[in-house]
Design a protein that fits this description.
globular
Amino acid sequence: MRAGISRREYLLIALATFAALLLVWWLVTATGLVDPIFLPPLTAVAARLGELAADGTLWLDTGLSVYRITVAYLIASAMALLLGPIMGMSARVEAALEPLFDFIRYMPVVAFVTLTVIWVGTGDPAKFLLIWMGTFFQQVLMVADAVRQVPQPMVQLGETLGLNRRQILLRIVFPAAWPRIYDALRVTLGWAWTWLVVAELVAATAGLGYRLTVAKRYFATDTIFGYLLVLGVLGLVFDQGMRALGRVLFRYQRKER
């Protein structure tokens, strides 16, 4: 059922899927089946993106958004990588923190928009905080779960060899759990991009999320679809970049597609 395919074939199928979707979009708008206010023509979206690129708006928005998500995501990931393995190894730490983190992660991040302004002001720290809140609590629980899935005999082997808890964690548990941890980081990167739009609602003057909000007010659907495409492309680039790095880091696990 999981017969492998070559990387070339995989890429061709993926490109064909995108091409088919763009073709359907063009046909639906060209035949007038949908009012442009609901689905603008692909050419109108491309033209609008061209205008925004020409005056520098697109590059400014993209640069700011990439900066914000990179900083917030790296902070969240570093904290999750420090705390998650400890939660996964220690039942007491798990009992103390996991119910609390479960409690917090079900709170809607959008409800904290006003509070972040009160806490840290309206600058980039507020945006970092919102992205962090939407990412960290999911990450740390997934990292802890990955650590718990390390086979117990491996831990017992370390104890038999006289390793202390720190050595077992660093030499046995973390290396064994790292592929699953990396997958968790890759998945949560997608969530971070989702929270970026929410974060840029906070007194922003530029950014992809900010521009989407402004376009919504004026029913500028060509700008909305254009920026959604930009977000999708950026997310795909980041995701595929992590996927390519993962193939290098874990080539011993790699299966031929």
